[in-house]
Specification:
Layout: H1 2-25, H2 29-44, H3 54-72, H4 77-81, H5 83-102
Helix pairs in contact: 1-2
Length: 116
């Protein structure tokens, strides 16, 4: 049981460090978390990171599958089979693409600490 808490504490610590670094470097926190996990696995080894623990494998599998299913649930086959709905979806996508292409880029945002 102590090993489970140690692995969980290691992962939580890595997430906190990655989130802090991502915010500090203005990089996506998800990208920093993935990078921190890869570096820590390389440094500590897969066994220390809990690669063979069934509960951690379950959590990782769930975290990989559930967002994929949620994202795929938006595009139901019945929408694509209905020509009118498919045409509306294509028109919406084209409108977003054109709007992104024609709008000038937004000016960079400055945080409260960076304002002069």
């Amino acid at each position: 049981m102590d090993q489970a808490f140690a692995v969980a504490a290691l992962w939580v610590g890595l997430v906190l460090i990655a989130t802090f670094l991502g915010t500090l470097l203005k990089i996506s926190n998800a990208l920093m978390e993935i990078t921190a996990g890869a570096v820590a696995t390389r440094f500590f080894g897969p066994e220390a990171m809990g690669a063979n623990l069934p509960w951690l494998t379950f959590i990782a599998s769930t975290g990989a599958v559930v967002p994929t299913l949620i994202a795929g649930g938006v595009f139901l086959p019945r929408h694509l089979l209905n020509p009118q709905v498919a045409a509306e979806m294509a028109a919406d996508a084209e409108a977003v693409r054109l709007r992104r292409r024609t709008e000038p880029p937004a000016p960079p945002r400055r945080g409260p600490a960076l304002r002069r």
